[in-house]
Design a protein that fits this description.
Elements (H helix, E strand, L loop, with lengths): L1 E5 L19 H5 L3 E5 L1 H4 L9 E4 L2 E4 L6 H18 L1 E6 L10 E3 L7 E3 L3 H8 L3 E4 L3 H15 L2
Parallel strand pairs: 1-2, 1-5, 5-8
Antiparallel strand pairs: 3-4, 6-7
Bound molecules: iron/sulfur cluster.
Length: 154
């Protein structure tokens, strides 16, 4: 089974400020499934480091006001293309990111206010039928993987 993962959660320094969001417990998931790292913002053509961005209605806007909706859409398109080509059934994504957030994002005012919602890539992957988990849902993800394996007998 293949699981797409936000690359920053695997320790890749692709976060907007050049850092990462490494979660060492992901190694446990890696023993049960093949992990496919993706960073939609890099795939969309944005550099690292880069300005932070937030979703604002239908658009994605950087802190200085640059509209980066096209880059975010391109990144989502590439992630969906890879997920389909490789047969990823689920994704573990960085919560609150304007690309990867699965349950929560920031509200577009750059003031740290969180709202229910998804990042652009999370939204597109969900639409393709992938099961989404955030980095705090690894136990649920593990359970899901084991149940799936039991169901399919592999
Ligand atoms: Fe991590 Fe996703 Fe942001 Fe890339 S776009 S740095 S993978 S949260």
């Amino acid at each position: 089974m293949k699981i797409m993962v936000s690359a920053c959660l695997l320790g890749v320094s692709c976060r907007y400020d050049g850092g990462d969001n490494a979660v060492s417990q992901l190694a446990v998931i890696g023993q049960e499934a093949e992990l496919i790292p993706v960073c939609p913002e890099i795939y969309g053509g944005l550099p690292t480091p880069r300005e932070p961005s937030e979703r604002s209605g239908d658009r994605v806007v950087s802190k200085s006001g640059r509209d980066v909706s096209e880059q975010f859409a391109k990144g989502a398109r590439e992630a969906v293309r890879l997920a389909k080509m490789l047969g990823c059934e689920a994704a573990i994504l960085k919560e609150r990111s304007p690309s990867c957030g699965t349950h929560q994002i920031y509200d577009g005012t750059f003031s740290g206010v969180r709202i229910p919602g998804s990042g652009v890539t999370a939204e597109w992957l969900r639409r393709e039928g992938l099961q989404l988990f955030d980095e705090d849902e690894l136990a649920a993800c593990l359970k899901w993987i084991r149940e799936k394996k039991e169901e399919t007998g592999c």
